[in-house]
Write a structure and sequence with these properties.
By secondary structure, the protein is α/β, with parallel strands linked by helices. Helices cover about 40% and strands about 15% of the residues. Bound molecules: (2S)-2-hydroxybutanedioic acid. The site of (2S)-2-hydroxybutanedioic acid (LMR) has 9 residues, from helix 8. It catalyses: (S)-malate + NADP(+) = oxaloacetate + NADPH + H(+); (S)-malate + NAD(+) = oxaloacetate + NADH + H(+).
Length: about 325
């Protein structure tokens, strides 16, 4: 998708620098051969390597996809230790060699806290430019709303995901629209929103792993493309997109310094602002508080990786 121009535009040439590990080097060579033989007109160069400092050199965008994957029965928190150290090393490498305006999108789980670790280890880069992927959750929420209402998914808009990319995430049905009208006016079933829609979206990743023993791959790739496009194409009036970003200065009172998913808007220049006009009721507020508490707990678990003292991992 990147090489074909679907993401950055049909007039934007690009170079891909693919970072792997010693163990995956053969696969990396295979991917590079596939890309070369596809003759993508916009793809100017493919470089492969296992040294993050070399592979991040002058990078404008860094998509941090790799992480130890979650297997059946594992929760995201189980991955904190396994992946945290990798993101510390990679954050330092970003700091050393990436472009100072580099936009970083973390996909590997637990992605919010991995993004936090990378951000805190890369002080030369703007904190604002670190993202964790919650567009996948937004897409899942849109799919559920479209199926329930019997409308096509392109008519579903303004769907925010709040908080962590985990089972505590909050898919926002209160502000969502279908065909430009409040979703709750068209699906008049509050019980469905609370007891079906919300857990279905929040546990979709785990449900998929149970089915075929692996994390979602195709829908994740699509949502990565969507997440980047959301930053390089202006947001339609009244719409939003979800991305987890550093909570400094947000209008919803979320604890500063967490990587927290918010509804955002972009002018299409790679930058974004957090939407300040989302209405929250008591139910949403309490759910948002729970996901905020989880992220705060995750942060305390990785304090040793982000230069903070103390903390504990319950
Ligand atoms: C997903 O939401 O599909 C993945 O984040 C699940 C996972 O933990 O790999």
């Amino acid at each position: 998708m990147l090489a074909s121009g679907e993401v950055y535009g049909k007039d934007q040439p690009l170079s891909l620098m693919l970072l792997g590990s010693e163990r995956s080097y053969g696969a990396l060579e295979g991917v590079a051969m596939e890309l070369e033989d596809s003759l993508y007109p916009l793809l100017r160069e493919v470089t492969i390597g296992i040294d993050p400092v070399e592979m991040f050199q002058d990078a404008d965008w860094c998509l941090m996809i790799g992480a130890k994957p979650r297997g059946p029965g594992m929760e995201r928190a189980d991955l904190l230790n396994a992946n945290g150290e990798v993101f510390q090393v990679q954050g330092r490498a970003l700091n050393e060699s990436a472009s100072k305006d580099c936009k970083v999108l973390v996909v590997g789980n637990p992605c919010n806290t991995n993004a936090l670790i990378a951000m805190e280890n890369a002080p030369r880069l703007a904190r604002k430019n670190f993202h964790a992927l919650t567009r996948l959750d937004e897409n899942r929420a849109k799919c559920q709303l479209a199926m329930k209402s019997g409308k096509f998914y392109t008519s579903v808009s303004r769907v925010a995901i709040w908080g962590n990319h985990s089972t505590t995430q909050v898919p926002d049905f209160l502000n969502a629209k279908i065909g430009g009208l409040p979703a709750m006016n068209q699906i008049k079933d509050l019980e469905w929103f609370k007891k079906d829609f919300t857990p279905t979206v929040a546990t979709r990743g785990g449900a998929l792993i149970k089915k075929w023993g692996k994390s979602s791959a195709a829908s994740t790739a699509v949502s990565i493309a969507d997440a980047i496009r959301a930053l390089v194409v202006p947001t339609a009036p009244g719409d939003c997109f979800s991305t987890a970003v550093c909570s400094d200065g947000n209008p919803y009172g979320v604890q500063e310094g967490l990587i927290f998913s918010f509804p955002c808007r972009s002018k299409g220049d790679g930058d974004y602002e957090i939407c300040n006009d989302f209405i929250l009721d008591d139910w949403l507020r309490s759910k948002i508080k729970a996901t905020e508490d989880e992220l705060s707990q995750e942060k305390s678990c990785v304090s040793h990786l982000i230069g903070l003292d103390g903390g504990s991992c319950a």
